[in-house]
Amino acid sequence: MLKTFDEVVAKARELGKVVISVAAAQDREVLGAIKAVAEAGLAGAILVGDAAPIRAIMAEVGLPADMQVIHEPEPRQAALKAASLVRQGQAQVLMKGLVNSGDFLKAVLNPEMGLRSGRLLSHFAAFEAPDGDKLIYHSDGGMNIAPNLEEKKEILANSLAALLALGIQKPKVAVLAANEVVNPKMPVTVDAQALAALHAAGERFAGSIIEGPISMDVALNPKAAQHKGISSSVAGDVDLFLLPSIEAGNLLAKALIHYAKFKNAGVVVGATHPVVMVSRADSAEAKIHSIALACLLAAGAEQRKKGA
Q1: Most buried pick, 17, 98, 147, 263, via CB within 10 A?
Q2: Which whole-number Å values give the CA distances from 267 to 195, 226, 275, 307, in the listed order?
Q3: Is the pLDDT of residue 278 over 90?
């Protein structure tokens, strides 16, 4: 059970260095983060983009001059080339640089050169509480705006696969809603009930514990569950919070980061390989944690393939 991002870094290093393919790498913050993870022994990188500014920034941040640079000045083409390197096995993680998010995601989903898996892409976030005893995970607060039931099934499947790669063998999942009462006027509660029922019937999501609908206070506090007369196997020990909408996920994440001083990381999952799409507003620490999380997911997936 990973407790801190320091443990994420250590575990990723233990599993072996991976290669990150960076799309439109002429971005000082991104290359600064690449330098940090390279120095930590987590990853090497292939930098795709406009070679002249890339090399100038490399010199500024102190990246080694012999790091591979592929000259492709047009950002959309750089994104396609970077994705193709991962597809071909030359890298195991794809990272967004100075390219429009829409163009970057089109490259990820390109059927000939990208990382399309047939699954829905979703955002998988990790958080470290200042006084917490383990990392907690949220999905989806960054990709899917108002997922319907079928999309929530895919988001949940993506997240459970990521948790397995992180070594969590029997994850506890809270499918969040405003309360525990199923109400047709609140479709989120109906969806949550359906997801929990699929699991209870053994139809999907084996090897996990899924409860919903469940409110945040009950998910966080066994005393709240007891006070409400709710018997719960996840209250106070949730691994994954499945969020009802992008607004809920975005607001919760920013409240945790800015008010409660949680550390954070985020990765796009559902493609054939982990994808890093950090925001320019993210701290340098969050960027490094996101890359480390992606490296660990990639290394964990490779370990499972070898053991299969």
Answers
A1: 147
A2: 23, 35, 6, 24
A3: no
